[in-house]
Automatic annotation (TrEMBL):
Stretches assigned to the CdaR GGDEF-like domain: 284-424
One family name in Pfam for this protein: GGDEF_2
Species whose genome carries this gene: Paenibacillus solanacearum
Name recorded for this polypeptide: Purine catabolism regulatory protein
Superkingdom in the source lineage: Bacteria
Residue span, PucR C-terminal helix-turn-helix domain: 476-534
Purine catabolism PurC-like domain segment(s): 12-126
Matches recorded under InterPro entries: CdaR-like_regulators (IPR051448), CdaR_GGDEF (IPR041522), PucR_C-HTH_dom (IPR025736), PucR_dom (IPR012914)
Amino acid sequence: MGIAVREAMHIGGLARCKVVAGADGLDRTIEAVTVMEVPDVIRWLKGNVLLLTSLYPVKDDEEAIENLVGRLHMAGIAGLAIKTGQYVRHIPDAIVAAGNRLGLPIIEIDKETTYLDIMTPLMEYILSEPRPLEEQPDSYNQWLTELAMSGKGVAALIEAVERLMGGELSVGSELPARELRYGTEAAPLTVLQKKQLTAAKRPVRMERRLGGQALPCLVAPIMLSEELVGDITYRASNREFRERDIRVVERTMILIALEFLKAITTADVEQTFKDQFMADVLQGRVPDVTETIEKGRRFGWDFTSHYAVYCVAVSRRADSSERRIRETAASPQWKRRLLHQARAAFRFDEAGVVITFLKQDMVILYPQAYPPARPTAVRQAEAIHRQLASEWEELSFTIAVGRWHPGLEGIHKGYLECCRVLELGKPLRSSGVIHYDELGLFRLLSESRGSNELESLYAESVGKLADYDAAHGANLVETLTRYFAQNGSLAETAEKLFVHVNTVKYRLQKIEQLTGCSVNDAEARLLLHVGLKIRLLRLSERSEYD
């Protein structure tokens, strides 16, 4: 098991290095490779290890340098490889002399050779032999760590692990960064699978679809701050999973998580700058159009184009407290997930889409050269809504759609309209998609909210019906609302309310008796219509403070 130092000197980075002492010990066997860059590492060494070091831990301690080779010889190591240049200009004479005396190979590492250049080919050779991982887990873990810390990214790390394990690995990401993905793209994890991985926090056997086939796999979660941000999927080649596979994947998922952390930190900082810049654009603070267009180009945005504006808000649910909603919407994890899901809605047409956050809402700018028909704009918003709703069953979303306006000023106008929709649109529906044009009469009535005239008009019409319903447990307001919604059809109104037609007739008579307004009179009917709109405005105002 292992490889002789003499043979190892022809493999990988060692082929560029030279033996400066201890040639008599070149037949010593290397069974693992490790790094000494902290004091007292020697006490933890096991036999037959090739030790790599810059001598940093002992560079200022002459006594430690004098005793180093003797202690390593007693520990039974296979050889000592020293990188000169950074901390020591040359290998100390005491180390050379002791190496020759004890027959311990002393190797000078070439200046252009990294630890990884030595570790990777040797560990691949050693780990290809039977049961190496079980016997030398520390060396294997250190090699993987060195590989991860080399800065070569996810692909280099996974490719090395694939060569050792003899199977296929893929990395999936909940984040938009493409450099975090690797290998055959698996079908998205189901909600149940995500919950299983989040609960387990370690590799789990499960079936996944890879290349169109459902295959048994070992799937490991990539977790950061209790959030599932990605996964590693391992498929063995024509064999059962072994305990070694689980340990390798488990170690790999920790190191891949470091790569995700680096990418997330970079993306979060960049998103913050984007949000700050877009806050000025959305709120109309654009003193210099040319400068703003140029700034936008640095983020990859073309503000010489025209955009449709959508605003996404989290709607309050009966089982979710307002405080919880606000805390969730403000967290970086929440914003990342929201951003990822919103981009998924544009996965076939992502070019030029701008996504930013302002206050608690997400704002999406979709490139649109010409004014889209209202149904087209609504369909796009509905696609976004479906994508978000499929990810968060416990939350509800309202997407406001502004009208199309040209240029940078058009973005500002569209955003103001979206804000207006979110403010006034609650009466229309508790969640879903609302276009600015749907506000209709609410836009006019909202200008007079709280005025004596509006309150008086309500009290003279629908207010009387609401009071009667409260006092007698009746349904006059609901009946009137349904009657107007069904365009005055008695039969359809009765069907919607699950009552007899005669019941609807009786209630309409009661409405006329209480308000003096007949649904058969155009002026009176208009007054009742307006009264219902005022009532919805009052209810929406009240819900903001509940």
